[in-house]
Amino acid sequence: MTYTQSTSIEFGAVHELDKKSANKVAFGALVGSVLEYYDFFLFSAAAALVFNVQYFTSGNATLAALASFATFGVGVAARPIGGIVFGAMGDRIGRRKTLMITIVGIGIITALIGILPTYAAIGIAAPVLLVLLRIVQGLFVGGEWSGALTLVVENAPLHLRARYAVIPLIGSPIGTILSSGGFFLVTIAISQQNFESWGWRIPFLLSLPLLLVAVYIRRKLEESPVFRQLEEAGELATNPVSTAFKHSWRQILIGMAASLLGMGGFYLVTTFCVWYGVNVLGYSRSLMLLGTIVAAVVEIFVILLSGRLGARFGSSRVILWGGIASAVVALPAFLLLTSGVPVLIVLSMTLAVATLSFPYAGTGAVLTGLFPARTRFTGVAVANNTAAMIAGFVPLLVTSLVAAAHDHWWPAALVLALISLITASAGAIAPKFSVDLPGFKH
Predict the structure, then answer these.
(1) What are 211-248's pLDDT values in tens digits?
(2) How far apart, in Å, are the Cα atoms of 428 and each of 89, 226, 314, 372, 424?
């Protein structure tokens, strides 16, 4: 089957879609996305605040942090494998069925982390089990984001795809608000000793009721009309993974670069900066968590604005100029972070997250536009999750570089600027390699 045939089937399946059905699917995908990001960012915050104390014992705070961030990294290292497994599943048995599997897996694993005994209780088995749970969680996450995005895009009118493609991405700041907010409330409600002893488990256990809500809403969603048309025409890819790598390897590389800043930059500003602020600059946990929460609130509005800009000018341009803006503000943001003034510290995190959120918001429409419908789930999953694997080790890399620079912040600012320019370059070339769909502006 040629790309032209696939495009023809897709155009016939979606050109008469209305906003009502698109809104329903977008909301269902958003709820699941919130749970995904809530669970994933719980681990991010805990890696900076708790796991370095409760699961990795070391007399050196930096070494303990490196071990904790490495555990954070192995979760995203597993995401490309999950992307391949669940991406192929989504292109063969359907987007909706695959998303039900991934969301249940993510919720259960997060709850298990919440009841995992510490190093003091069971010794070396504690960090080993933590790593294993993180790996399994990463496998499920590998299929969730790309599946939710594909389902939303394929249920939206072509001229509004950029606007709807940002809806699942709002799950990131909402998940950040819920996870950081949960930790923030616990830290101010109980003593530091109780927080480190048992209080940190509360946000993890709250993933179970969120899971029940997500499953209830997901069950009511219908399958993508594009997938149904491909299935009825007998044109589903028999081996979507090999097909994607054979025919779309350039698109996978471009998708990886386009996705890098939205995740790698975000992990740097949230995970690394929280650790750096608390352990090197001596700021309070609550202040750094507050900075994360405020930045996430602003990010929601930036993402929504980016969707409108993408529909009007093309999401690839949003990625290009957003990446350039992020590179420009990297140095000023870290100068504000080290000022010691609480308002400026919160502003620094907000400024950095706001600028990198523009290209992050553009990835939804750009990535789904890079791949034909029959291998879209797989292509998006491989590109995004491979970028996530690289991004997941950014806190570890930056912590190492900063330690080598005697705890100075400049290596972190340099890494943020470099990642920003890589993503901006992807935005510049993405339209040339995208699928041509009438009515869709790349």
Answers:
(1) 888 888 888 888 888 888 888 888 888 899 999 999 99
(2) 31, 28, 11, 20, 7
